[in-house]
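Subject: Interface between my chains keeps coming out wrong

I've been trying for a while to get a sensible model of this assembly. When I model each chain on its own everything looks fine, but I need the whole thing in one frame so I can look at the contacts. Pasting all components below, labels as-is. Any help appreciated, I'm running out of ideas.
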Amino acid sequence: MSPVWSITKKELVSYFTSPIACIVIAIFILLSGFFFYSLVWWFNTQAMQMAQNPYYYQQININQMVFAPFFHNLSIILLLMLPVVSMRLFSEEKKMGTEELLFTSPVSVFQIILGKYLAALIVLLAMLALSAIPTIFTFIHGNPEPVPYLLGYLGLFLLGAAFLALGIFWSALTENQIVSAVLTFGTLLLFWVLSWAAYSARGLWQDVLNYLSFFEHFDGLTKGVLDTSDLVYYLSFAFFGLFLTHSVIQFRRWR
Amino acid sequence: MIETEQLTKKYGDLVAIQNLSFKVEEGRIWGLLGPNAAGKTTTMRILTGYLPATSGRASVAGFDVFEQADSVKQSIGYLPENVPLYPEMTVESYLGFVAEIKKIPASRKKAAVDRAVQIAGLQSVRKRLIKNISRGYRQRTGIAQALIHNPKVVILDEPTIGLDPAQIKEIRDLIKSLRGEHTIMLSTHILAEVKEVCDGVVIINEGKLMASGSLEDLARNFSQNDGVYLRLDSTDREVLNLFRHLPGIQQAAREGAEIRLEWPWGQDLRTRVLKLCLENNLEIKEMRSLAMNIEELYLRIVSGGMEQ
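Reply #2:
Try treating it as a single job with all components included. I did that and got this:
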Protein backbone atom coordinates (compact mmCIF):
# COMPACT_ATOMS: atom_id res chain seq x y z
CA MET A 1 0.00 0.00 0.00
CA SER A 2 1.29 3.42 -0.87
CA PRO A 3 2.41 5.43 2.17
CA VAL A 4 0.36 8.38 0.86
CA TRP A 5 -2.83 6.36 1.21
CA SER A 6 -1.75 5.08 4.67
CA ILE A 7 -1.46 8.67 5.84
CA THR A 8 -4.77 9.61 4.23
CA LYS A 9 -6.49 6.73 6.03
CA LYS A 10 -4.96 7.71 9.35
CA GLU A 11 -6.07 11.32 8.87
CA LEU A 12 -9.60 10.25 8.00
CA VAL A 13 -9.74 8.15 11.17
CA SER A 14 -8.79 11.16 13.28
CA TYR A 15 -11.16 13.44 11.36
CA PHE A 16 -14.11 11.20 12.08
CA THR A 17 -13.20 10.03 15.60
CA SER A 18 -12.33 13.47 16.91
CA PRO A 19 -15.68 14.70 15.77
CA ILE A 20 -14.36 17.66 13.75
CA ALA A 21 -15.38 16.21 10.39
CA CYS A 22 -18.80 15.07 11.63
CA ILE A 23 -19.59 18.49 13.12
CA VAL A 24 -18.34 20.42 10.10
CA ILE A 25 -20.29 18.21 7.71
CA ALA A 26 -23.45 18.34 9.82
CA ILE A 27 -23.42 22.13 10.07
CA PHE A 28 -22.60 22.46 6.40
CA ILE A 29 -25.58 20.30 5.44
CA LEU A 30 -27.84 22.21 7.80
CA LEU A 31 -26.84 25.60 6.40
CA SER A 32 -26.82 24.51 2.77
CA GLY A 33 -30.21 22.88 3.26
CA PHE A 34 -31.58 26.07 4.74
CA PHE A 35 -30.22 28.23 1.92
CA PHE A 36 -31.48 25.85 -0.70
CA TYR A 37 -34.93 25.70 0.86
CA SER A 38 -35.25 29.47 1.09
CA LEU A 39 -34.00 29.96 -2.48
CA VAL A 40 -36.49 27.42 -3.82
CA TRP A 41 -39.28 29.03 -1.80
CA TRP A 42 -38.37 32.48 -3.13
CA PHE A 43 -38.13 31.04 -6.67
CA ASN A 44 -41.63 29.57 -6.32
CA THR A 45 -43.22 32.86 -5.26
CA GLN A 46 -41.42 34.68 -8.06
CA ALA A 47 -42.52 32.06 -10.57
CA MET A 48 -46.15 32.39 -9.44
CA GLN A 49 -46.07 36.15 -9.93
CA MET A 50 -44.25 35.99 -13.25
CA ALA A 51 -46.63 33.37 -14.57
CA GLN A 52 -49.18 36.20 -14.97
CA ASN A 53 -47.05 37.75 -17.67
CA PRO A 54 -45.97 35.67 -20.67
CA TYR A 55 -42.89 37.86 -21.31
CA TYR A 56 -41.50 37.46 -17.82
CA TYR A 57 -42.47 33.82 -17.77
CA GLN A 58 -39.90 33.24 -20.52
CA GLN A 59 -37.23 34.69 -18.27
CA ILE A 60 -37.64 32.22 -15.44
CA ASN A 61 -34.49 30.17 -15.11
CA ILE A 62 -33.93 27.87 -12.13
CA ASN A 63 -30.18 27.72 -12.76
CA GLN A 64 -29.79 31.45 -12.48
CA MET A 65 -32.37 32.05 -9.80
CA VAL A 66 -31.66 29.10 -7.50
CA PHE A 67 -28.35 27.44 -8.25
CA ALA A 68 -26.12 30.45 -8.96
CA PRO A 69 -26.98 32.14 -5.61
CA PHE A 70 -26.93 28.74 -3.89
CA PHE A 71 -23.36 28.11 -5.03
CA HIS A 72 -22.33 31.57 -3.93
CA ASN A 73 -23.78 30.97 -0.50
CA LEU A 74 -21.97 27.65 -0.27
CA SER A 75 -18.69 29.25 -1.29
CA ILE A 76 -18.94 31.66 1.66
CA ILE A 77 -19.81 28.82 4.05
CA LEU A 78 -16.77 26.94 2.78
CA LEU A 79 -14.63 30.00 3.43
CA LEU A 80 -15.86 30.03 7.02
CA MET A 81 -15.66 26.30 7.65
CA LEU A 82 -12.70 24.87 5.76
CA PRO A 83 -10.09 26.55 8.01
CA VAL A 84 -11.46 24.28 10.75
CA VAL A 85 -10.85 21.26 8.55
CA SER A 86 -7.27 22.19 7.67
CA MET A 87 -6.14 23.65 11.00
CA ARG A 88 -5.09 20.39 12.65
CA LEU A 89 -3.22 18.79 9.75
CA PHE A 90 0.31 19.68 10.84
CA SER A 91 -0.31 21.73 14.00
CA GLU A 92 -1.57 18.71 15.90
CA GLU A 93 1.35 16.50 14.84
CA LYS A 94 3.73 19.16 16.02
CA LYS A 95 2.00 19.63 19.35
CA MET A 96 1.68 15.90 20.02
CA GLY A 97 5.27 15.21 18.97
CA THR A 98 4.05 12.71 16.39
CA GLU A 99 5.75 14.60 13.58
CA GLU A 100 8.98 13.04 14.85
CA LEU A 101 7.54 9.66 13.95
CA LEU A 102 6.46 10.83 10.50
CA PHE A 103 9.70 12.60 9.63
CA THR A 104 11.89 9.72 10.81
CA SER A 105 9.96 7.22 8.68
CA PRO A 106 11.13 6.36 5.19
CA VAL A 107 8.31 8.48 3.75
CA SER A 108 9.09 11.71 1.93
CA VAL A 109 7.79 15.04 3.22
CA PHE A 110 5.90 15.47 -0.01
CA GLN A 111 4.12 12.14 0.43
CA ILE A 112 3.12 13.17 3.97
CA ILE A 113 1.71 16.49 2.74
CA LEU A 114 -0.11 14.80 -0.11
CA GLY A 115 -1.61 12.16 2.21
CA LYS A 116 -2.93 14.81 4.56
CA TYR A 117 -4.22 17.01 1.76
CA LEU A 118 -6.08 14.09 0.19
CA ALA A 119 -7.81 13.38 3.50
CA ALA A 120 -8.97 17.00 3.72
CA LEU A 121 -10.20 16.84 0.10
CA ILE A 122 -12.21 13.73 0.95
CA VAL A 123 -13.89 15.60 3.82
CA LEU A 124 -14.65 18.43 1.36
CA LEU A 125 -16.09 15.95 -1.12
CA ALA A 126 -18.30 14.47 1.58
CA MET A 127 -19.57 17.97 2.49
CA LEU A 128 -20.38 18.79 -1.12
CA ALA A 129 -21.90 15.40 -1.96
CA LEU A 130 -24.23 15.49 1.04
CA SER A 131 -25.26 19.09 0.34
CA ALA A 132 -26.33 17.97 -3.15
CA ILE A 133 -29.00 15.57 -1.88
CA PRO A 134 -31.86 18.11 -1.62
CA THR A 135 -30.99 19.58 -5.03
CA ILE A 136 -31.81 16.25 -6.68
CA PHE A 137 -35.48 17.03 -6.17
CA THR A 138 -35.27 19.97 -8.53
CA PHE A 139 -34.21 17.50 -11.21
CA ILE A 140 -37.13 15.22 -10.37
CA HIS A 141 -39.75 17.97 -10.32
CA GLY A 142 -38.23 20.47 -12.76
CA ASN A 143 -35.73 20.66 -15.57
CA PRO A 144 -32.62 22.62 -14.64
CA GLU A 145 -29.70 22.49 -17.05
CA PRO A 146 -27.22 19.91 -15.73
CA VAL A 147 -24.04 21.48 -17.14
CA PRO A 148 -24.03 24.75 -15.12
CA TYR A 149 -25.14 22.71 -12.09
CA LEU A 150 -22.21 20.29 -12.39
CA LEU A 151 -19.75 23.06 -13.19
CA GLY A 152 -20.98 24.92 -10.11
CA TYR A 153 -20.12 21.93 -7.95
CA LEU A 154 -16.78 21.54 -9.74
CA GLY A 155 -16.14 25.20 -8.97
CA LEU A 156 -16.98 24.67 -5.29
CA PHE A 157 -14.62 21.71 -5.14
CA LEU A 158 -11.77 23.65 -6.77
CA LEU A 159 -12.40 26.63 -4.54
CA GLY A 160 -12.38 24.39 -1.47
CA ALA A 161 -9.21 22.66 -2.67
CA ALA A 162 -7.49 26.04 -2.90
CA PHE A 163 -8.75 27.00 0.60
CA LEU A 164 -7.42 23.75 2.02
CA ALA A 165 -4.01 24.18 0.37
CA LEU A 166 -3.73 27.56 2.03
CA GLY A 167 -4.88 26.05 5.33
CA ILE A 168 -2.32 23.24 5.27
CA PHE A 169 0.39 25.84 4.70
CA TRP A 170 -0.59 27.80 7.81
CA SER A 171 -0.93 24.64 9.87
CA ALA A 172 2.67 23.74 9.01
CA LEU A 173 3.78 27.06 10.47
CA THR A 174 2.26 26.87 13.94
CA GLU A 175 1.62 24.24 16.57
CA ASN A 176 -1.49 26.03 17.73
CA GLN A 177 -4.61 24.93 15.88
CA ILE A 178 -6.56 28.09 16.68
CA VAL A 179 -3.77 30.29 15.33
CA SER A 180 -3.62 28.13 12.23
CA ALA A 181 -7.39 28.45 11.66
CA VAL A 182 -7.43 32.22 12.27
CA LEU A 183 -4.51 32.82 9.90
CA THR A 184 -6.18 30.72 7.20
CA PHE A 185 -9.47 32.48 7.70
CA GLY A 186 -7.79 35.90 7.61
CA THR A 187 -5.91 35.15 4.40
CA LEU A 188 -9.04 33.81 2.74
CA LEU A 189 -10.95 36.94 3.69
CA LEU A 190 -8.14 39.01 2.23
CA PHE A 191 -8.45 37.20 -1.08
CA TRP A 192 -12.21 37.69 -0.95
CA VAL A 193 -11.82 41.40 -0.34
CA LEU A 194 -9.49 41.66 -3.35
CA SER A 195 -12.48 41.44 -5.64
CA TRP A 196 -14.05 44.46 -3.93
CA ALA A 197 -10.81 46.40 -4.24
CA ALA A 198 -10.82 45.50 -7.91
CA TYR A 199 -14.02 47.56 -8.39
CA SER A 200 -12.31 50.78 -7.39
CA ALA A 201 -8.95 50.00 -9.04
CA ARG A 202 -8.14 51.02 -12.59
CA GLY A 203 -6.25 49.57 -15.53
CA LEU A 204 -3.64 46.93 -14.92
CA TRP A 205 -4.29 46.88 -11.16
CA GLN A 206 -7.90 46.00 -11.76
CA ASP A 207 -6.88 43.05 -13.92
CA VAL A 208 -4.32 41.85 -11.41
CA LEU A 209 -6.69 42.11 -8.43
CA ASN A 210 -9.47 40.47 -10.36
CA TYR A 211 -7.20 37.66 -11.37
CA LEU A 212 -6.07 37.05 -7.80
CA SER A 213 -9.57 37.04 -6.31
CA PHE A 214 -11.01 33.61 -5.56
CA PHE A 215 -14.55 34.48 -6.49
CA GLU A 216 -13.94 36.13 -9.82
CA HIS A 217 -12.94 32.71 -11.15
CA PHE A 218 -15.89 31.05 -9.49
CA ASP A 219 -18.53 33.25 -11.19
CA GLY A 220 -17.92 31.86 -14.65
CA LEU A 221 -18.30 28.26 -13.50
CA THR A 222 -21.65 28.91 -11.79
CA LYS A 223 -22.90 30.42 -15.06
CA GLY A 224 -21.92 27.25 -16.90
CA VAL A 225 -18.83 28.65 -18.60
CA LEU A 226 -15.79 26.40 -18.37
CA ASP A 227 -12.72 28.55 -18.89
CA THR A 228 -9.36 26.79 -18.66
CA SER A 229 -7.80 29.89 -17.12
CA ASP A 230 -10.10 29.45 -14.10
CA LEU A 231 -9.08 25.82 -13.76
CA VAL A 232 -5.43 26.79 -14.08
CA TYR A 233 -5.92 29.44 -11.40
CA TYR A 234 -7.32 27.04 -8.82
CA LEU A 235 -4.94 24.21 -9.60
CA SER A 236 -1.90 26.45 -9.51
CA PHE A 237 -3.14 28.00 -6.26
CA ALA A 238 -3.45 24.56 -4.69
CA PHE A 239 -0.10 23.45 -6.05
CA PHE A 240 1.58 26.62 -4.83
CA GLY A 241 0.07 26.14 -1.36
CA LEU A 242 1.42 22.58 -1.13
CA PHE A 243 4.79 23.67 -2.46
CA LEU A 244 5.04 26.40 0.19
CA THR A 245 4.06 23.88 2.86
CA HIS A 246 6.89 21.65 1.72
CA SER A 247 9.34 24.56 1.81
CA VAL A 248 8.23 25.62 5.28
CA ILE A 249 8.67 22.12 6.70
CA GLN A 250 12.08 21.70 5.13
CA PHE A 251 13.18 25.14 6.22
CA ARG A 252 12.12 24.55 9.82
CA ARG A 253 14.21 21.41 10.02
CA TRP A 254 17.24 22.67 8.13
CA ARG A 255 17.61 26.07 9.70
CA MET B 1 26.83 0.08 13.90
CA ILE B 2 26.53 3.71 14.95
CA GLU B 3 29.40 6.03 14.27
CA THR B 4 29.78 9.79 14.43
CA GLU B 5 32.69 11.96 13.44
CA GLN B 6 33.12 15.57 14.52
CA LEU B 7 29.36 15.98 14.68
CA THR B 8 28.29 19.57 15.38
CA LYS B 9 24.86 21.14 15.59
CA LYS B 10 24.16 24.82 16.11
CA TYR B 11 20.77 26.48 16.56
CA GLY B 12 21.67 29.98 15.47
CA ASP B 13 24.39 31.00 17.91
CA LEU B 14 23.56 28.30 20.40
CA VAL B 15 25.88 25.32 20.10
CA ALA B 16 23.91 22.20 20.98
CA ILE B 17 26.63 19.66 20.31
CA GLN B 18 30.24 20.17 19.32
CA ASN B 19 32.69 17.82 17.58
CA LEU B 20 31.07 14.68 18.88
CA SER B 21 32.85 11.49 17.78
CA PHE B 22 31.90 8.07 19.12
CA LYS B 23 31.22 4.51 18.06
CA VAL B 24 28.75 1.86 19.12
CA GLU B 25 29.41 -1.77 18.26
CA GLU B 26 26.85 -4.15 16.85
CA GLY B 27 24.52 -5.94 19.23
CA ARG B 28 25.41 -3.88 22.27
CA ILE B 29 23.33 -1.61 24.46
CA TRP B 30 24.91 1.77 24.78
CA GLY B 31 23.86 4.60 27.05
CA LEU B 32 24.01 8.24 26.06
CA LEU B 33 24.55 9.85 29.39
CA GLY B 34 24.62 13.45 30.42
CA PRO B 35 22.91 16.07 32.56
CA ASN B 36 19.76 17.75 31.27
CA ALA B 37 20.34 19.98 28.22
CA ALA B 38 23.64 18.25 27.45
CA GLY B 39 22.63 17.60 23.82
CA LYS B 40 21.37 14.03 24.13
CA THR B 41 18.11 14.57 22.27
CA THR B 42 19.82 16.63 19.56
CA THR B 43 22.35 13.84 18.99
CA MET B 44 19.59 11.27 18.68
CA ARG B 45 17.54 13.46 16.36
CA ILE B 46 20.51 13.80 14.04
CA LEU B 47 21.14 10.05 14.05
CA THR B 48 17.51 9.36 13.15
CA GLY B 49 17.48 11.90 10.33
CA TYR B 50 14.94 14.17 12.02
CA LEU B 51 17.42 17.05 12.18
CA PRO B 52 20.38 17.76 9.93
CA ALA B 53 23.77 18.43 11.53
CA THR B 54 25.60 21.70 10.97
CA SER B 55 28.82 19.85 10.22
CA GLY B 56 30.45 16.48 10.69
CA ARG B 57 29.45 13.00 9.67
CA ALA B 58 27.32 10.24 11.12
CA SER B 59 26.53 6.75 9.93
CA VAL B 60 24.03 4.18 11.11
CA ALA B 61 24.08 0.53 10.01
CA GLY B 62 26.67 1.43 7.40
CA PHE B 63 24.60 4.16 5.76
CA ASP B 64 25.45 7.83 5.84
CA VAL B 65 22.78 9.71 7.77
CA PHE B 66 22.79 12.66 5.38
CA GLU B 67 23.37 11.03 2.02
CA GLN B 68 21.40 7.81 2.43
CA ALA B 69 18.69 9.15 4.71
CA ASP B 70 16.02 6.73 3.46
CA SER B 71 18.16 3.64 4.06
CA VAL B 72 19.01 4.93 7.53
CA LYS B 73 15.36 5.56 8.33
CA GLN B 74 14.54 2.06 7.16
CA SER B 75 17.12 0.45 9.46
CA ILE B 76 16.42 2.52 12.56
CA GLY B 77 13.68 2.36 15.16
CA TYR B 78 13.22 5.51 17.19
CA LEU B 79 11.36 6.28 20.38
CA PRO B 80 11.42 10.07 20.89
CA GLU B 81 11.22 11.48 24.40
CA ASN B 82 7.63 12.51 23.72
CA VAL B 83 6.15 9.16 22.76
CA PRO B 84 4.56 9.79 19.35
CA LEU B 85 1.10 8.28 19.80
CA TYR B 86 -2.28 9.01 18.25
CA PRO B 87 -4.68 8.84 21.21
CA GLU B 88 -7.74 8.21 19.06
CA MET B 89 -6.31 5.00 17.56
CA THR B 90 -6.23 1.53 19.09
CA VAL B 91 -2.82 0.06 19.91
CA GLU B 92 -3.25 -2.40 17.07
CA SER B 93 -4.32 0.10 14.41
CA TYR B 94 -1.56 2.47 15.50
CA LEU B 95 1.07 -0.26 15.08
CA GLY B 96 -0.52 -1.13 11.73
CA PHE B 97 -0.16 2.47 10.62
CA VAL B 98 3.49 2.59 11.69
CA ALA B 99 4.11 -0.69 9.85
CA GLU B 100 2.67 0.88 6.70
CA ILE B 101 4.77 4.03 6.84
CA LYS B 102 7.85 1.93 7.60
CA LYS B 103 7.04 0.26 4.28
CA ILE B 104 6.42 -3.25 5.56
CA PRO B 105 4.66 -5.12 2.71
CA ALA B 106 0.92 -5.64 3.30
CA SER B 107 1.36 -9.42 3.36
CA ARG B 108 3.75 -9.20 6.32
CA LYS B 109 1.98 -6.40 8.17
CA LYS B 110 -0.14 -8.54 10.47
CA ALA B 111 2.79 -10.73 11.45
CA ALA B 112 4.89 -7.64 12.19
CA VAL B 113 2.18 -6.15 14.40
CA ASP B 114 1.73 -9.47 16.23
CA ARG B 115 5.45 -9.75 16.80
CA ALA B 116 5.76 -6.19 18.15
CA VAL B 117 2.74 -6.76 20.44
CA GLN B 118 4.36 -9.96 21.67
CA ILE B 119 7.79 -8.44 22.35
CA ALA B 120 6.44 -5.38 24.11
CA GLY B 121 3.88 -7.38 26.11
CA LEU B 122 0.83 -5.53 24.80
CA GLN B 123 -1.47 -8.53 24.34
CA SER B 124 -3.96 -7.37 26.98
CA VAL B 125 -4.41 -3.86 25.54
CA ARG B 126 -4.05 -4.37 21.80
CA LYS B 127 -7.70 -3.62 21.04
CA ARG B 128 -7.94 -0.62 23.35
CA LEU B 129 -7.73 3.06 22.45
CA ILE B 130 -4.33 4.55 23.23
CA LYS B 131 -5.92 7.41 25.19
CA ASN B 132 -7.38 4.87 27.62
CA ILE B 133 -4.25 2.88 28.45
CA SER B 134 -1.82 3.54 31.30
CA ARG B 135 1.43 5.40 30.94
CA GLY B 136 3.50 2.23 31.22
CA TYR B 137 1.58 0.67 28.35
CA ARG B 138 1.95 3.83 26.29
CA GLN B 139 5.68 3.63 26.76
CA ARG B 140 5.57 -0.03 25.70
CA THR B 141 3.52 0.94 22.66
CA GLY B 142 6.22 3.47 21.84
CA ILE B 143 8.88 0.79 22.06
CA ALA B 144 6.74 -1.63 20.02
CA GLN B 145 6.48 1.10 17.37
CA ALA B 146 10.27 1.42 17.28
CA LEU B 147 10.70 -2.34 16.85
CA ILE B 148 7.95 -3.04 14.36
CA HIS B 149 10.14 -3.25 11.25
CA ASN B 150 12.79 -5.28 13.10
CA PRO B 151 15.40 -2.55 12.69
CA LYS B 152 19.10 -3.18 13.17
CA VAL B 153 19.45 -0.10 15.33
CA VAL B 154 17.05 1.09 18.01
CA ILE B 155 17.32 4.55 19.49
CA LEU B 156 15.40 5.27 22.67
CA ASP B 157 15.25 8.76 24.13
CA GLU B 158 14.68 8.56 27.90
CA PRO B 159 12.64 5.36 27.72
CA THR B 160 11.81 5.17 31.43
CA ILE B 161 11.07 8.81 32.21
CA GLY B 162 7.91 9.43 34.21
CA LEU B 163 7.21 5.78 35.02
CA ASP B 164 6.70 4.22 38.44
CA PRO B 165 9.40 1.87 39.81
CA ALA B 166 7.60 -1.30 38.76
CA GLN B 167 7.09 0.01 35.24
CA ILE B 168 10.70 1.16 35.08
CA LYS B 169 11.84 -2.35 35.91
CA GLU B 170 9.55 -3.82 33.23
CA ILE B 171 10.83 -1.46 30.56
CA ARG B 172 14.45 -2.13 31.53
CA ASP B 173 13.87 -5.88 31.37
CA LEU B 174 12.28 -5.39 27.98
CA ILE B 175 15.29 -3.43 26.73
CA LYS B 176 17.71 -6.00 28.13
CA SER B 177 15.83 -8.75 26.32
CA LEU B 178 16.64 -7.01 23.02
CA ARG B 179 20.38 -7.28 23.54
CA GLY B 180 22.19 -9.14 20.77
CA GLU B 181 19.44 -8.87 18.15
CA HIS B 182 19.47 -5.10 17.96
CA THR B 183 22.06 -2.43 18.56
CA ILE B 184 20.50 -0.11 21.08
CA MET B 185 21.34 3.41 22.10
CA LEU B 186 19.34 4.89 24.94
CA SER B 187 19.68 8.27 26.51
CA THR B 188 19.23 8.81 30.19
CA HIS B 189 20.41 10.82 33.13
CA ILE B 190 19.71 8.02 35.58
CA LEU B 191 22.97 6.35 36.49
CA ALA B 192 21.38 3.23 37.91
CA GLU B 193 19.81 2.63 34.53
CA VAL B 194 23.16 2.69 32.79
CA LYS B 195 24.64 0.35 35.35
CA GLU B 196 21.79 -2.10 35.03
CA VAL B 197 21.13 -2.07 31.32
CA CYS B 198 24.09 -0.79 29.34
CA ASP B 199 27.32 -2.34 28.13
CA GLY B 200 28.92 1.01 27.56
CA VAL B 201 28.32 4.72 27.60
CA VAL B 202 28.91 7.93 25.77
CA ILE B 203 29.02 10.71 28.31
CA ILE B 204 28.38 14.23 27.07
CA ASN B 205 28.13 17.51 28.87
CA GLU B 206 27.26 20.90 27.36
CA GLY B 207 27.43 19.38 23.92
CA LYS B 208 30.95 18.05 24.29
CA LEU B 209 32.11 14.47 24.50
CA MET B 210 33.48 13.74 27.95
CA ALA B 211 34.09 10.02 27.69
CA SER B 212 33.02 6.99 25.74
CA GLY B 213 33.63 3.28 25.93
CA SER B 214 32.55 0.18 27.78
CA LEU B 215 31.90 0.58 31.47
CA GLU B 216 34.94 -1.53 32.45
CA ASP B 217 37.26 0.45 30.21
CA LEU B 218 36.03 3.73 31.58
CA ALA B 219 36.43 2.58 35.14
CA ARG B 220 39.95 1.48 34.32
CA ASN B 221 40.81 4.80 32.72
CA PHE B 222 39.42 6.97 35.40
CA SER B 223 40.41 5.13 38.53
CA GLN B 224 43.87 3.80 39.00
CA ASN B 225 43.04 0.83 41.17
CA ASP B 226 40.53 -1.93 41.47
CA GLY B 227 39.25 -2.75 44.91
CA VAL B 228 36.38 -3.26 47.33
CA TYR B 229 34.42 -1.54 50.03
CA LEU B 230 34.23 -3.69 53.14
CA ARG B 231 31.86 -3.37 56.08
CA LEU B 232 32.82 -5.31 59.18
CA ASP B 233 31.21 -5.79 62.57
CA SER B 234 34.32 -4.52 64.27
CA THR B 235 35.32 -0.87 64.22
CA ASP B 236 38.69 -1.63 65.76
CA ARG B 237 41.46 0.63 64.41
CA GLU B 238 43.92 -2.24 64.39
CA VAL B 239 41.93 -3.97 61.67
CA LEU B 240 43.13 -1.46 59.12
CA ASN B 241 46.73 -2.42 59.83
CA LEU B 242 45.91 -6.06 59.20
CA PHE B 243 44.81 -5.21 55.67
CA ARG B 244 47.69 -2.87 55.05
CA HIS B 245 50.08 -5.75 55.58
CA LEU B 246 48.29 -8.01 53.12
CA PRO B 247 50.55 -8.46 50.05
CA GLY B 248 49.31 -6.60 46.98
CA ILE B 249 47.18 -4.05 48.81
CA GLN B 250 48.11 -0.55 47.78
CA GLN B 251 45.81 1.35 50.03
CA ALA B 252 43.53 0.67 52.96
CA ALA B 253 41.53 3.50 54.44
CA ARG B 254 38.47 3.94 56.59
CA GLU B 255 35.58 5.79 54.95
CA GLY B 256 32.79 6.24 57.46
CA ALA B 257 31.71 2.81 58.59
CA GLU B 258 33.42 1.15 55.65
CA ILE B 259 36.94 0.21 54.79
CA ARG B 260 38.18 0.97 51.32
CA LEU B 261 40.73 -1.44 49.96
CA GLU B 262 42.59 -0.81 46.70
CA TRP B 263 44.89 -2.93 44.61
CA PRO B 264 46.26 -2.61 41.06
CA TRP B 265 44.17 -3.62 38.03
CA GLY B 266 44.50 -7.20 36.91
CA GLN B 267 44.72 -8.73 40.36
CA ASP B 268 41.87 -10.02 42.40
CA LEU B 269 42.59 -9.93 46.12
CA ARG B 270 39.05 -10.67 47.23
CA THR B 271 39.76 -14.25 48.27
CA ARG B 272 42.80 -13.14 50.23
CA VAL B 273 40.77 -10.47 51.98
CA LEU B 274 38.12 -13.05 52.87
CA LYS B 275 40.66 -15.47 54.23
CA LEU B 276 42.23 -12.77 56.32
CA CYS B 277 38.88 -11.90 57.82
CA LEU B 278 38.14 -15.54 58.62
CA GLU B 279 41.53 -16.05 60.23
CA ASN B 280 40.99 -13.04 62.44
CA ASN B 281 37.36 -13.82 63.28
CA LEU B 282 36.09 -10.66 61.62
CA GLU B 283 32.47 -10.88 60.57
CA ILE B 284 31.81 -9.45 57.11
CA LYS B 285 28.52 -7.54 56.77
CA GLU B 286 29.01 -6.32 53.24
CA MET B 287 31.58 -6.33 50.48
CA ARG B 288 31.10 -4.53 47.20
CA SER B 289 33.21 -3.65 44.24
CA LEU B 290 34.90 -0.28 44.07
CA ALA B 291 35.51 0.02 40.36
CA MET B 292 31.96 -0.06 39.04
CA ASN B 293 30.82 2.89 41.05
CA ILE B 294 29.28 4.75 38.17
CA GLU B 295 28.02 7.66 40.23
CA GLU B 296 31.53 8.52 41.23
CA LEU B 297 32.80 7.98 37.72
CA TYR B 298 30.09 10.15 36.22
CA LEU B 299 30.60 12.99 38.68
CA ARG B 300 34.33 12.92 38.13
CA ILE B 301 33.89 12.98 34.38
CA VAL B 302 31.16 15.60 34.17
CA SER B 303 32.11 18.00 36.92
CA GLY B 304 35.85 17.48 36.83
CA GLY B 305 35.97 18.29 33.13
CA MET B 306 38.20 15.28 32.50
CA GLU B 307 38.12 15.01 28.74
CA GLN B 308 39.44 11.92 27.09
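Reply #3:
Confirming on my end. Chain A has one domain: 3-254.
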